[in-house]
Amino acid sequence: MGKKGSSSQADIAVFSQLQEENAALKQENEELRRKLERMNELLLNAQRARFGQSSEKREYVMSQQLGLFNEAETEQDHKAPEPTEETLTVKEHKRKPKRTADELTADLPVREVILELPEDQPTCSTCGHPLKRMGKKYLYEELEIIPRQVHVIKYYSATYACENCEKESGYAHIYSVAAPPRLLKHSLASPSTVADVMVRKYVDGLPLYRQEKIWAREGIALSRATMANWVIQTAQTWLKPLYRRLKKHLLESRVIYADETVVQVLKEDGKPAASESRMWVYGSGERGGRPIRFFEYQPDRSGKHAAAFLKGFTGCLVTDGYPGYNQVTGAVRCGCWAHMRRKWREAMPKGATTATSKAAIGYEYCNKLFVLEKKFSEMSDAVRKTARQVKAEPLLEAYWLWLKTLDPVPGSKLAEAVTYAQNQKPDLSAFLDHGEVEISNNFAENAIRPFVVGRKNWLFSDTAKGAESSAIIYTLVETAKANGLDPYAYLFQLLEELPYLGRNPSPNDLDIFMPWQPAVRTAYVSSVSSKS
């Protein structure tokens, strides 16, 4: 009995040890599986970023896609009606016509070239009598490019003398015409030249060193240092007051969309050259009638900058999930469903469907919401608010209930999406009570895109004042574009007329130059007409 008892105890000990080892192996296997899933997610997102489609169209979710081999069995329906001649008739498909040459050149000036016989040959080859011109016959047309012309304009002041005073007293009173205000003292800079340099850099993405080479090819030795001085001095002297006034109008908007991106400034106090600063962008929506795109340079990404900028703003603030915006007080925070949808998309494995991927289900919920919003886009704010509460709110309730059923692997992309949704729930739901708010932050992202594209060319700013000047000019040209104005025509008008207001113009004087003002738009139309 003793031997049997000791043997059974040994077996129990071995069995217990095996159970522990088995549990440890299972745990290790589960950890390795999670790591593998995580690595596959990272690889998929890297491949998607490099080779995949950049847009977020619905085609990523293939919930309705069927297998090629079982499609007949799946779709078979004995009760399906047979087609008739009427149901088989296919509506005529009209291909979108190509634009004609007249449409392409409708806004361009036209110069006619009439091909005529030489003066010594206007006679009939049959009878020798002179030929009489009876009209003209169209042959063809072509585009002609005329390189820009550069002139030096020398201003002189006419002088006048009073002959009567000279006769009576022997001394003539001399009068002369006062000179118009200069854009920059002791400089060749003119409104047209500086506006051209600004547009080439901030709209066309041509850095100053490339412009320097273009000027050299045209026979003008204009250095990048000179152009940089022109840009910074005119921005700080004449454009900055208008820039500040635009901020005042922006803060009066009902909705502001905000975002930020990286900018590198080489010479910044207390920071190494390789450190990252930030360009913040704030934009008003299209529903307000006064589109504004406002850029602000700051040395870092701290939310205190957004809080300081938006101080006193009491409307709706639409942002992504960056927690720095939590420092903003007084505004109604609204989340971005485009970012939410992006999180689900990043968590979707290759070939995902709503039947095989939970992330695909979340992605499809977002798509359904955007489909509804497209239907609501033409509604007034009040009607859209009601429509959202009737149609969109039940969809969101189903979405939040479905979210509670998920138990994702910690550290996975799915877990990131779930956490983002849970943390952003109040902000993502806020649009239901505000018909004036869009459900995405695309306004701010689209506004900041020209800066990001331009940054690829000029790479960095040399000084903080240069970065601030860039913010001023980006604000004016992007706001002009948002209001349907040509950036060059708008900048030229500003640089030509703002110096007449002096260094401290009044708010009323500055309001005249807002891009939505009739006077500005009339001047823009006149400048376009004069060009053609």
Descriptors for this entry?
532 residues; alpha/beta; five-stranded mixed β-sheet; two-stranded antiparallel ribbon; elongated; disordered C terminus
Short description:
This protein has helices spanning 2-51, 71-75, 85-88, 101-104, 163-169, 191-202, 208-217, 224-251, 303-309, 337-347, 358-376, 381-404, 413-429, 442-458, 464-482, 487-497, 507-511, 518-531, and strands spanning 159-161, 174-176, 255-263, 265-267, 277-284, 293-298, 316-318, 332-334, 461-463.
Describe the structure.
The radius of gyration is 34 Å and the shape is elongated. The chain is α/β, with parallel strands linked by helices and 532 residues long. Residues 58-76, 85-90 and 528-532 have low confidence and may be disordered. Helices cover 50% and strands 8% of the residues. The chain has a 5-stranded mixed β-sheet with strand order 6-5-3-7-8, sandwiched between helices. Strands 1-2 form a two-stranded antiparallel sheet. It contains 18 helices and 9 strands. The N and C termini lie far apart (115 Å).
Q: What letter string, H or E per element, gives the SSE order?
A: HHHHEHEHHHEEEEHEEHHHHHEHHHH
Are there runs of 5+ residues with pLDDT below 50, and where?
Answer: 58-76, 85-90, 528-532
Shape: elongated
Structural class call reads alpha/beta
- Beta fraction of the residues? 5-15%
Cα distance spanning the termini: 115 Å
Question: How helical, in percent, are the residues?
Answer: 40-55%
